[in-house]
Amino acid sequence: MTKHNNKRQLIGRQHTLGHQLIDTDHMAIAHWWQRVVECDPVESTFFIARLKKLMRDHFDHEAFLMAQSGGRLCECHQKEHQQWIDVCDQAQALSGISWRKARSLLRTDLPRLVREHVISMDQLTVMFINTNGTVGHPHTGIEGR
Question: What's the mean pLDDT in 12-30?
Fold first, then answer.
């Protein structure tokens, strides 16, 4: 694997929102993003696909938690989720032509979108969930707070 001197993180501890499952999902996405931006070109398609899978799982978790709390994700929230996937799709398409350009897209556009989303949409989501009862993990029943 090619290692770059990339000190940037997708999100950090300062983006912890106070909900175990959502924070764990965010950290898993951030960890895998780091692997994607450091991977070799031949690995990129598989690594980006895994990143998108982690994102979709997270989106499903948020929707489940909101439903269990008596709410739902607003259209704006869902559109921002789609923007994350769109950036990954663009990078995946570019990766066959220029991994350098694809990686640049993932290093610049995606972190901005994720950080803005976490500190606004996800913070509101966690406040809603945490004030409307305790809910468990959708697959394991593990406590969500």
Answer: 89
